[in-house]
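can u do me a favor
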């Protein structure tokens, strides 16, 4: 993939996101024609969107010009008055969630940033409210009202208005589901609460996913809760884990609880590839016969990867898993040659591209991160440090894992591999969603 100068990349990033939210339709039209993603698709490959529906792949219709200002000048939400939760206990969490799930960014940050924060805030909200209600769940009626109110509050602060759909969260996620324990006093009589607090009161965000100190304590407590019922199935244990997390959130300060919950969520996020991998037959056709024509093969590979680049932002480790998954699919189609090396495919090529020219993919940090709001813009960090080559799966390069020290993982940011280090600030960019009238000054 062609290199691009950092200064030009920064400008193109800014222009692209200005384009998403421009103020004058005439400016939008001309800029869209020159800078937006190419939405053409090959007949052999399906159009992919974050939700899996055949919708446009990038938001070209600008939302309300006032949306960014809502974060600091909130509109008054129309609440039901029937929710038993105290939203005031999680003011800071709600603000962070609104920024993480900000309008057009939400579907593309859903997997890594928005939805983990959305779910964590709900967990903290129920947990904090349990200090008064003495309940670790809501009944179905209250759950519907509370989730609706929560959406209203977030939307009033600039968040996307379809978060329940984007994050696949409904009222049932606020109930006890199949777990039989929902009252605080019953919970504290059933599990070893001291062990939970000792192992989860503060976690080592870098090493928790490998050591699973807190994760094991939560699983053990969930099994204890599940044993109360006659059905100790995997589903019941999973539902009881939600109860454990709410109780834990009730014992910690909201920001501390957020760090724990987001850290635990990242362990699951970085274990797999979140992308939908279309049929690889077009690549197999182009790269068959021991790759008799490199140009044809790489053209087919580039066309395939371009579909992946329209789905979502990924973390470094997610991109590694995606490279491994795609490589295995290609190997099943009898492609034995390393087409990643042949066609210069990097980890960045699997993530949403930072500009319409598809020259630099944005890889988010694999440790929990949030978007930020600074007066006139919503920003998030994008690691453009290296064009790390995608690793072709083999016996010597099995499925990637930051915990397997015998596997040589490419030079990811040091924090990913459990070591302390610094990012190179010269090549760490902010993807900026700016609200100014700069478009009026563009010649």
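np, heres the sequence
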């Amino acid at each position: 993939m062609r290199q691009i100068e950092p200064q030009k990349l920064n400008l193109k990033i800014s222009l692209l996101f200005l384009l998403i939210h421009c103020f004058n339709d005439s400016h939008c039209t001309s800029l869209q024609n020159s800078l937006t993603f190419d939405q053409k698709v090959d007949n052999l490959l399906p159009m992919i969107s974050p939700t899996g529906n055949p919708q446009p792949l990038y938001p070209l219709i600008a939302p309300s010009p006032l949306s960014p200002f809502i974060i600091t000048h909130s509109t008054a939400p129309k609440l039901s008055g029937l929710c038993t939760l105290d939203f005031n206990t999680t003011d800071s969490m709600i603000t962070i969630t609104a920024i993480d799930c900000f309008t057009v960014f939400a579907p593309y940050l859903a997997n890594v940033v928005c939805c983990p924060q959305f779910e964590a805030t709900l967990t903290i909200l129920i947990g904090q409210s349990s200090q008064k209600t003495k309940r670790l769940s809501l009944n179905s009626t209250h759950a519907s009202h509370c989730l609706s109110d929560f959406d209203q509050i977030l939307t009033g602060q600039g968040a996307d208005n379809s978060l329940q759909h984007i994050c696949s969260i409904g009222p049932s996620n606020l109930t006890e589901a199949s777990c039989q324990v929902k009252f605080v006093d019953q919970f504290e009589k059933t599990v070893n609460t001291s062990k939970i607090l000792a192992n989860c009161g503060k976690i080592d965000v870098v090493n928790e996913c490998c050591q699973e100190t807190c994760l094991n304590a939560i699983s053990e407590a969930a099994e204890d809760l599940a044993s109360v019922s006659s059905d100790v199935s995997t589903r019941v244990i999973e539902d009881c884990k939600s109860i454990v997390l709410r109780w834990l959130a009730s014992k910690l300060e909201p920001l501390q609880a957020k760090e724990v919950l987001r850290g635990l969520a990242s362990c699951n996020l970085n274990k797999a590839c979140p992308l939908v991998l279309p049929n690889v037959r077009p690549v197999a056709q182009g790269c068959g016969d021991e790759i008799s024509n490199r140009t044809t093969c790489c053209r087919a590979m580039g066309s395939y990867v371009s579909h992946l680049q329209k789905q979502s932002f990924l973390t470094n480790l997610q991109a590694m898993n995606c490279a491994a998954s795609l490589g295995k699919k290609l190997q099943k189609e009898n492609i034995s040659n390393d087409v990643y090396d042949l066609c210069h495919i990097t980890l960045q090529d699997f993530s949403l591209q930072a500009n319409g020219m598809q020259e630099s993919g944005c890889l988010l940090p694999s440790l929990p991160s949030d978007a930020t709001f600074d007066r006139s813009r919503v920003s998030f960090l994008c690691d453009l440090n290296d064009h790390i080559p995608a690793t072709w799966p083999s016996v010597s390069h099995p499925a990637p894992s930051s915990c397997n020290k015998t596997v040589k993982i490419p030079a990811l940011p040091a924090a990913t591999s459990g070591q302390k280090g610094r990012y190179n600030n010269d090549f760490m960019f902010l993807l900026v969603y700016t609200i100014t009238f700069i478009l009026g000054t563009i010649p």
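Residues 284 and 332 are 10 Å apart (CA to CA). hope that helps!!
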